[in-house]
Amino acid sequence: MRALVYHGPGQKAWEEVPKPQIIDDGDAVVRVDAVTICGTDLHILKGDVPAVTDGRILGHEAVGTVETVGSGVRTVEPGDKVLVSCITSCGTCRFCREGRYGQCLGGGGWILGHKIDGTQAEYVRVPFADTSVHPLPEGVPVEDVLMLADILPTGYEVGVLNGRVGPGDVVAVVGAGPIGLSTIMGARLFSPSRIIAVDLADSRLAAAKEFGADVLVNNSREDPAAIVRDLTGGLGADTTVEAVGVPDAFELAVALARPGGRIANIGVHGEPATLHLEEQWIRDVTITTGLVDTFSTPTLLRLLAGRQLDAGRFVTHRFGLDDFPKAYEVFADAAHTGALKVVLTR
């Protein structure tokens, strides 16, 4: 089969590799019908995730068709259409029993495209299939479901829920890429009074407005802190969300929060960021971090099936599976291409 293989920082290739096989009785081999690229994949290619080694197939998001299953699989069978979650869950360890699947101790967590071969391929082996894939709801487009493999549960869980967004809150989202937009979409479910989107690119800010942001701030030419203070009587935002993964974005998210506010970090960081504790210790702020657990995926699937989420609006570019090099080029240059999510299909 063909797959996108990582060969060290800045190096990747769409090449021939062995087709995956069942290894454990809980495995499923899924034929990939639709797959996307994540900002985390770009971080990997920058060298920010050293656990990803030469020869690894990238990718952790897909919708596909179950081809074969191990003898222990009970919830899916060959021919089923499924969502392959970015997080794999053993289902039995302490953290999985708490719903913290991202911290799985039993061989799961974020492993696809990280510690084992991932989804940017014609086929993928999914361990713990009973607890790590989700049947597709009837009548929902495949592209829409694909957005629930990672970005929507990530923005919802690590941004909105960790940030404890509530009715009437002022929410500032630093970064209006796919994760920031997912946060905006998820925050809207909790009726905040204002959502402020901060980004360097006007195209991303335009997207943020379409996704529900009320105030747009281009921090290449405006002062986000001054604008947020002006909108909040000098206090700052109730919740700020860092959705970029660079030091400046984290430090800005902290600066935008009010005393007693919440700062939810989502971004994947590859270098240190400064926390000015000499300024923050007295302000009663709460800072949360987290890897998505995907415990919310069943809820989001129901909202999708009930037309409460318009996930398809994330998809801006479409390619065939053999077009991975071009798809990465378009996705990585989002400031110029306007790419949010790219989808590659058979």
Automatic annotation (TrEMBL):
Residues 178-290 form the Alcohol dehydrogenase-like C-terminal domain. Keywords: Metal-binding, Oxidoreductase, Zinc. Its cofactor is Zn(2+). It holds the Pfam family ADH_N. PROSITE patterns: ADH_ZINC. The keyword Zinc applies. Belongs to the zinc-containing alcohol dehydrogenase family. PANTHER family: NADP-DEPENDENT ISOPROPANOL DEHYDROGENASE, ZINC-TYPE ALCOHOL DEHYDROGENASE-LIKE. This is Zinc-dependent alcohol dehydrogenase family protein.
